[in-house]
Amino acid sequence: MKVFVFNERKLGLIPIIFIIIGMIVPMLFLVFYASRDSGKSAEPLLYYIIKEPYLSSFKNTLIISLKVSFWSMIISTFITYSLTVLHNKTQSLILFAVITSMWLSILVRSYAWILILQKNGLINSLISLVYTDYERVSLMYNQTSVIIGMVHILCPYIILIQWTGIKDRIKSLVPVANTIGASSSFYFFSIFLPSTKKHLALGGVLVFIISLGYFITPLLLGQGSGNSLMVAMLIEERINTFANWKVGALISVNLLVVFMVVLGGILTVPVFNKLLLGYLNEKSDDL
Length: 287
Description:
This protein has 287 residues and is mostly helical. The chain is 79% helix and 0% strand. It is built from 13 helices and no strands. The protein has helices at residues 8-35, 43-50, 54-85, 88-103, 106-117, 122-130, 143-166, 170-179, 184-212, 216-222, 231-241, 245-268, 270-286.
């Protein structure tokens, strides 16, 4: 009887081919299209990052991405902490809520925040019940509403990454804390955080990277007004509204360059470098 044996080298070619066809080739095509007919000067490329409104959109994108990453890390840390001290049934219920929220369409979740934040929305209605003289104001179309919506959508990613890293250690961490009579604050700062800092750093970087190219939620909750205009919205406007594919490609290349520079800067920070390398080494040891 002939036994089928997997060829590891041939199987390893599958993800490599996928990355080349699905990622590298489109990026190279984008760079080629953006640089075509641009001449020898680099001025056309730089123009779409140092002039308005492009400069403001890049600043807004970086600021919003940093704020979304920060608040997502804070919220996910406390939710993951609560998972480690709750009973199994409550634990499962919270995890179910986190996972099912990711099954819902981003469009649906963004529209839900419109119903909550708009002038006749839930928040204004509740405030008007308490203060009868309250004049309703729209909480929409600003940077804060964009950040709220993006944190709600991206926070589950960090929760699941943290929970995956600590769930196998709970059986030993909690009994140890109870044995030494540790307080809640001692358990949080001295036992929980050191055990999840690698996964928290990885989740924060992941959310930051995703936020750089976010489009649907900023469009619905911010509509490109003031400091809520992000680069992805500018690219969509240049391509769909003005049918200027070349400018859209140039802005996309600039966003790619900014992404590579920011990611390289993050990896050069000793704290993040050490945490991320520690996480990767930990996973390689598990394999």
